[in-house]
Amino acid sequence: MAYDYPPEKLSVYVSDDGGSQLTLFAFIEAARFATHWLPYCRKNKILERCPEAYFRSSPSWSPETAQIKMMYERMRARVENVVKRGSILPDYITNEAESEAFSRWADGFTPRDHPAVVQVLLEADRDKDITGHTMPNLVYASREKNMNLPHHFKAGALNVLLRVSATMTNAPILLTLDSDMYSNDSQTPLCALCFLLDPCIDSKLGFVQFPQMFYGINKNDTYGAESRQSEIVLIGMDGLVGPTNIGTGCFFRRQVFLGGSSPQLNPDLLVSKSIKSEEVLALAHHVAGCNYENQTSWGSKMGFRYGSLVEDLYTGYRLHCEGWKSIFCNPKRPAFLGKAPINLNDMLNQTVRWCVGLLEVAFCKHSPVTFGARSINLLTGLCYGHMALWPISSIPVTIYAFLPQLALLKCVSIFPEASDPWFFLRLFLFLGAYGQNCLEFMLSGGSIQKWWNDQRVWMMRGLSSMMFGLVEYLLKTIGISTFGFSVTNKTVEEEQSKRYDQGLFEFGVSSPLLLPMTTAAIINCISFLWGIAQIFTQGRLEGILLQMFLAGFATVNCWPIYEAILLRTDGGKIPSMYERMRDRVENVVKRGSISNDYIPDQREIEAFSRWTDEFTPQNHPPVIQVLLERGKDKDITGHDMPNLVYISREKRMDSPHHFKAGALNVLLRVSATMTNAPVILTLDGDMYSNDPQTPLRVLCYLLDPSMDPKLGYVQFPQIFHGINKSDIYDDELRHVYQVQLSGMDGLAGPQHVGSGGFFRRKIFFGGSSETPEMNQDQLTRKSIRSKEVLAIAHHVAGCNFENQTKWGTKMGFRYGSLVEDLHTSYQLQCEGWKSINCKPKRPAFLGNSPLNLHDSLNQTMRWSVGLLEVVFCKHNPIIYGVRFINLLSGLGFAYYAFWPFWSVPLTIYAFLPQLALLNSTSIFPKVSDPWFFVNVFLFLGAYGQDYLEFILSGGTTLRWWNNQRMWMMRGLSSFPFGWIEYFLKSMGISTFGFNVTSKVVQEEQSKRYKEGIFEFGVASPLFLPPTTAAIINLASFLKGIALVFKQGGLEDLLLQMLLAGFGIVNCWPIYEAMVLRTDEGKLPLRVSATMTNAPVILTLDSDMYSNDPQTPLRALCYLLDPSMDPKLGYIQFPQVFHGINKNDIYGKSPINLHDFLNQTMRWSVGLLEVAFSRYSPITFGVQSISLLSGLCFAHYTFWAIWAIPVTIYAFLPQLALLNSASIFPKISDPWFLLYVVLFLGAYGQDYLEFLLSGRPTQRWWNHQRAWIMRGLSSFTFGLVEYLLKYVGISTFGFNVTSKVVEEEQSKRYQKGIFEFGVPSPIFLPLTTAAIINFVAFLTGFAKACRQRSIEDVFLQMFLAGFAVVNCCPVYEAMAWRRDQGKLPLKITVISVVLAWALYSASSMAF
């Protein structure tokens, strides 16, 4: 707005893609400030026209400067205050126009679903600055968003700005600028116009690109933000047809985007009406709608182009293909400056997004290597190809980082020796490549240190971003994943900024992007050290010199990683009243709302009024309500009541809440601001105090002067009420809460177990807190209901309070693990604090335990994930703990943390001996072998010690038996699933949520628990490993008995027999649940439910209509006829479709191949669910109906199994033919005629049935073609989907078949043309089969011509030829068609790769 250019000719359009009223408010404030800022700039002729940059440069003081700075600070404070509050105060809205603008943000207005908003903030010629000069136009635009429609990320937003600006001002020149950049030179538009208006310049000059430069980059540009190599490429391209667009700082001619558009958007149209007129605003809102682009060329031939996440490069490339040219303008004073990410994770994430977008350009139908080289010129096409294929560099970089080093570790030389002439060639290539790179960098104005960081970052990108981008693109291509557009985070914490200024790399985020580079760093360091050892021990250097050099070079590059791994330390009752109260609470919970009768006074009404429509469990402000206050609230006898405070911390979906640890830290802070007691008790919501004397016992320890002053907390054991006699789920965890806590008590003290712990407050706060009110040494004397105290309490309960603090790292409960209790106590002990285990005869606290096997295993799985987070954190007990506590305590914590590792021996123990027994293989010593007794001793010794500890701690034999049984169940299910969940979370594929363990029990379930019966009533994958183990153990034991009777001895297999028998005894509850039980807690075969209620019902899909009004009468003629069988249950009319084309190319409606195949896939899953249910037609059906009816139903339900023979029929003979292998009889062989009869008989019967049903031959041909297509795609995908669903890996969703058809698609269907226009993996088997059959037929034909005989391969050639004829529509869609229904190029490419892979695999087989 402050450019040195006539303001009446300037129009600024701001796109707010999130549609936030806070952003609109910020621009309204900026518009007000601009009326003062623009005259100040003109008067003082300042260069820095961005206020933030100007005041950052410390301008010379003057009264006018001080005044304008004060206005700027006031404006910024108002905006920041509004953003912090999340809402706009009425005092900030100054006029009716603003009030009307903000009124559009209604309840249904969300960032992803909202109407278009176009608001004129300033209008030229009408709005004046303080000196009377006209202001430029300033327009806020937020395009319409609908979650059901694509929005095309940044390209879509820019296209909306193009159209809105065309309807309002329609200036011939456009500047695009990212929101985090500002203009650094007020003369920049004049520089651009010198090119665009120069008559000597080519009239096809479409845009002028300025370089992208950044401010605030540190001295050595740690993350290579300057991208000097990109600048070199742009300068080079400038010598051809011009540089590409780089997304910002680019001046375009409008006509390059709006070619021949509608009359309203004609680039040559002069807009003369007021931009605030209703007509103009209505048109602007219309073109900003999300449906405007439907059936237009926007994104393909007009505007910024869609199809890639790097819309800037793709648009610039497409414009060059259309004949436009560009110029690179690089003035001495940077035209624009912006923010670069100064965080390694953000930089790598940004590069991942670029890589996906570049690959989308590289492999689109307008690929630069093919289309570009033809449409522009060879060199420019290759330049674009160089950029688009950037991510492919990950392959050589990864090889360069790992292969030589791994070979070095194996003492394998893969490079020539130093005396070999080829050695110098490799040395020359390495030094030449790096030398050229360094020279270009230095000549472009860089320094050696910046170049070093640039090449280091290049390798980091190659190992992480490019590789992840390549994988993400491949996953997206085959439809497994869709990449979203994530805005690069450029908000920086103060400490992070300091580290960046010091040149330190920022590794503070647990991101999978850091895994490859840290792995490479470790391997390179180890291999380099190994190489040095080889030199000193064996004196061999010549053979491994190049590998040593590469490993050393990589080690030097990886120094920041080693620093981050090792050297750095920076971040951090009265029964009647009780029953009445309980009933009231249960009634409210059941209703889901609070009746006004239950709210007795105004204070409670005010408290409940905070729950508005926008208040959700995941998104709400803090709520702190004082329910009782000591000194003011009395009991019925006049005694003081204790303080009772309800707290619900603030939740925001975009802020981490750290589960239980985060909630406890809010309690710590709120209690510090209100009462600040020196001793704290933490207690879970499902536990209660069982002894009123418990606090006194604790104070005996904490206030005893003879005790260690570093005693930080007193831990009571976690004990549960309501556990059944035998404790079938081992809820007592006696080894943990009794045996091991007592053992740890003899060292530095026990760990915290999540509940029943009394803590000194100061162990969480250390020294003084960030605010005086939270100083742990201060005694709070103010009323806890006072506004001042409540305001501070709400402040510290906010989700942003912990930002840039040590909460969760060095203060409060520690974050980073789902077992926050163990993690926190472990870190406290590392800091020098001690603890004591207090174990009174009367339990201090009692709680609920899970009374359901599934909940118990789920709880253990969550613990396993948390324990693994402790194991693999930087404070690992086995390394960090043994140094900072003591050896034994460190090992004690490690014992807990490594709990999930027991899954490995337990899984081996449950499966390996039994599988060996099933294969009659002995893996243990014979009875006569002395080692036999060692094995027996180890088994009995381990179990004996475990049993003795359990009994001495007060347990019973039966409870011990259930304890060891549950240990094995946990080891087979919870621990492995915990491992999987942890690894998925670590790789960023999954994020583990904190699921509160369900302890609500149904009455019948409770009865079964009291009887000691295991509860399996949930169809959960957690039960799969134990039930599999149970089956294998039983089968192996029976096999062992059979071998004993058959061979007359068991000396070899005794131990395996004993283990299998021991497993069977342990698995008895599983066998009961599988076979013997009929209650709801049995092991489910399948979970299903049906419900219906009506005398006579007609079911009709929503896309069907009745074609005969007499139909109900016909049906009733059957249903009400007394002569009909009274068991007549339903009458079925045939399903007939209208609008099917002449030859019925898909053999059924819908009229789109993708939808047709998807529909069949859904049917296949459903049919298989019937086939393998307990009511399977092949078993239950033939008994309950009749043999023939059962087999008829089985014919339908096993439909999907046809995928197997159809797939074999489509691939095996053809692959054999490609490998010159004959798999069918010769023509002269009598068996040949049998094959011919079977083929012709099957097809002949099918053809005859079809003709007799009144259908023509052409429809039969399409019918059998559609059958083959189904067999190769729908049936196969349905079979895979069913198997995945069956084992609990995937759950199939119900997708309604789309029957909405575009006009062009409908025309193609009526012509009998197949529709392939969707890049779907469901087409891959079809296209792969088409390619293989075509190539096989040509190969067979060539062989026949060469050998003049086809006797051996006649049947294979016939099958391949038959398939080729069937696949004609596929070949048309792949090669000849140009309409929208053709086969996408990516499907063709992938199919070719798959065909080649199948051929390669078959070559080895044949």
From TrEMBL:
Protein residues bound to UDP-alpha-D-glucose: 17
The keyword Electron transport is annotated on this UniProt entry: no
Active site: 17, 312
Membrane protein topology class: Multi-pass membrane protein
Transmembrane segments: 384-403, 423-443, 463-487, 507-532, 544-567, 932-961, 1016-1041, 1053-1071, 1193-1212, 1232-1254, 1266-1284, 1322-1341, 1383-1401
GO terms for cellular component: endomembrane system; plasma membrane
Compartments reported by the entry: Endomembrane system
InterPro entries registered for this protein in UniProt: Cellulose_synth, Nucleotide-diphossugar_trans
Keywords annotated in UniProt: Cell wall biogenesis/degradation, Glycosyltransferase, Membrane, Transferase, Transmembrane, Transmembrane helix
GO BP: cell wall organization; cellulose biosynthetic process; plant-type primary cell wall biogenesis
Cleavable signal peptide: none
GO molecular function: cellulose synthase (UDP-forming) activity; cellulose synthase activity
SUPFAM superfamilies: Nucleotide-diphospho-sugar transferases (SSF53448)
Binding-site residues, Mn(2+): 154, 178
Protein name in UniProt: Cellulose synthase-like protein G3
Organism in which the protein naturally occurs: Vitis vinifera (Grape)
